[in-house]
Structures are given as C-alpha cells and as structure tokens.
Amino acid sequence: MARVFSGVKPSGKPHIGNYFGAFTRWAADQQPEHIYCVVDLHAMTVPYDPAELRERTVDLATWLLATGLDPDVVTLFVQSHVREHAEATWILDCVATMGELGRMTQFKEKGGGRDSVSVGLFNYPVLMAADILLYQSEEVPVGDDQRQHVELTRDIAQRFNHRFGETFTLPKATFPTSGARIMDLAHPDHKMSKSEDSPQGTIDLADDEATTRKKIMRAITDSGSEVRASEDKPGVTNLLDLLSAATGRPVADLERDFEGAGYGDFKRAVADAVVERLQPVRTRYAELRSDPASVAEALTKGADRARSTAAATMVDVRAKVGLTA
Ligand code: TRP
C-alpha cells in the first residue's frame, strides 16, 4: 500500500474545481496510509489577513470532512499544528540551492521579478518538500502545475540522502488519469481558480443552489449547436466534463444522450446534476459548521497522528545532519 500525501492551500474559497479535481478523488479511496494536509503555512507566502487565514483553514478542513474524508481512516491535519514542518524546512533550506528555487515557474509567475515579494514565496517549494518528505511519501497526487515542485522535492531528497546517508523516500507525483479538470465557466481556456478573480466563472462550494444554476446557465458555450467534446469547443467540452464528473458517466455516453438537443436543455441537465451531487455535501457542511468542536477534534486527532510520524523522521534527520540530541 503506497504512502500518499497531498496538500491544499486555504487561500480563496473552495470551488467545484477543487471538489471534482481533488476532494472527491481523495474521498473515493481512503486508506490508513493516506495523509491530507491543509497547508496554512503556505498561505502566508503572499499578503493575507490573519483572521481570514484562521477562518479559511477551518472552513477548508470542514469541506474536506463534508466531502466524506473519514478522520478515523485517513490522516487529515493542519500543517502548522505539526511544528516539524517548519523545522524540516530550515534543514532542507541548507540543502536546496538558490539556482533551483529561482527556476521554479510558480515563483517566477507569482513573484514577477519584484524585490518586494517575501522570502517565503521563494522558499515555498522547500516547505512543500518538507511536507512530503517528513512522511516518507511515495505518491503525491497533484495538479499539473505542481509537477515541478514534486520533481524538486525528489532532487532535494536525493541530494540529502547522498550527502548524509539514506534518509528520505523519493516521492513521485501522480496525476488523475481521467476526466475532471474543471475549467472556468466564463473563460474555459483557464483552469477554474478563485471566485475573487472570476466570480461568474467559478462555482464555490458555498454558493447556494440558485447561484449554482445561474452560473451554469450563463456558462460560455461555443458557436454551432452540437453537444460534443472537441478542442474547438472548450466551453461545451468543459460542461460535458463537469456533467461527467457529477454523474460518474463517460463523456461519450453523455454526447449520445444529448444528440440533437440544444445548449439550453444541455445546460439545464448540467445544472440539475451538479446541484444534486453537491446537495448532500452542502448539507453535511452546514451540520459540521454548527458543530465546530467535532471539526477541531478531528483535526487534533489528525495532527497527533501526523506528528508521531514526522517526529520520528526528525530524530533521524537531526542525528544525520549533526545536531545534538
Ligand atoms: N503547493 C500545492 C498547491 O498549490 C499545495 C501543497 C503544499 C502540496 N504542500 C503540498 C501538495 C504537499 C502536495 C504535497 O496545490
């Protein structure tokens, strides 16, 4: 059984792209060797509001629980609750190089060459390496934009092992093989990202039913009238992917169902399916929000479990790098 680790950042509001792209996949196959982390320390690398960070961290964990992650099976925890992440980052900082961090695409894009960006933004991938390596993770399910960070993690682990002796498992990134990379409904050439950036194109998990329907009905479609997935029909293709994710049915079957149908009927069917699929999750979320103690308890249990693994790794790491006991 592979040790799996993934992280999700509490910045912005969770949306259906996160839900279909990650959360439901994590919930579909739950094993004691799977570890999921709300990475609050990563959310501090760009300017933020402390009260909002606190709120979003709990909120994101609540959505993960509402999706069906079972804290008695998997380990679900908040990154900053396990201090070893910060400690390991420093040690790995002394192994990582300026050159390799400077080559990270995400840093170049987000940093934009400005001197005023935080050192934390530059260092972001090393904290991510610490997340992964502390648990001797073998597989790291991520979106394509994180591929480079996982490769860097592997390089850092390899260099550490070479310099100090066999310590870390070398991880590899895994990518969902089928379906659901949900695109922005208003700009179907971009991945769905934050509702702050594209309010019409993003369906937040917290949106109500009417808003969800409205955004789907207003989604960009393409010229022509056929409900068919193809490269020159990014809008329709995205809605087919969304319907497929919501119903669990292959796109080819859905294309057959909607042969001869207009975009209006098709969109109504997508809206129905998405609303129906999210309804129990939204209900469960509301229940959990009214019982914050149960969420806190789940996260405490997760942090305790994560800490025992992370602390054992750090005993080995500290000894290997020459720190006194
Ligand atoms: N950087 C990842 C993202 O933006 C989040 C993340 C942090 C992560 N630590 C991780 C993902 C460890 C996988 C493993 O999506």
Q: How is the secondary structure organized here?
A:
Layout: E1 4-8, H1 16-28, E2 34-38, H2 50-67, E3 75-78, H3 84-93, H4 98-102, H5 105-111, H6 119-133, E4 139-141, H7 147-164, E5 172-174, H8 209-217, H9 234-247, H10 251-257, H11 263-289, H12 292-321
Parallel strand pairs: 1-2, 2-3, 4-5
Helix pairs in contact: 2-11, 3-6, 3-12, 6-7, 8-11, 9-11
Bound molecules: tryptophan.
List of distinct ligands in this structure: tryptophan
Q: Strand count, sense and closure of the main sheet?
A: 3 strands, parallel
The proportion of strand residues reads: 5-15%
C-alpha Rg (nearest Å): 21 Å
In sequence order, what are the helices and strands, one letter per element? EHEHEHHHHEHEHHHHH
Class inferred from helices and paired strands: mainly alpha
Describe the structure.
By secondary structure, the protein is mainly alpha-helical. Helix content is 53%, strand content 6%. The protein has 12 helices and 5 strands. The chain has helices spanning 16-28, 50-67, 84-93, 98-102, 105-111, 119-133, 147-164, 209-217, 234-247, 251-257, 263-289, 292-321, and strands at 4-8, 34-38, 75-78, 139-141, 172-174. The strands form 2 sheets. A 3-stranded parallel β-sheet has the order 1-2-3. α2 links the parallel β2 (34-38) and β3. α6 (119-133) packs across α7, α8 (209-217) runs antiparallel to α11 and α9 (234-247) crosses α11. The longest helix is centred in the last third of the chain and has 30 residues, at 292-321. 38% of the residues are buried.
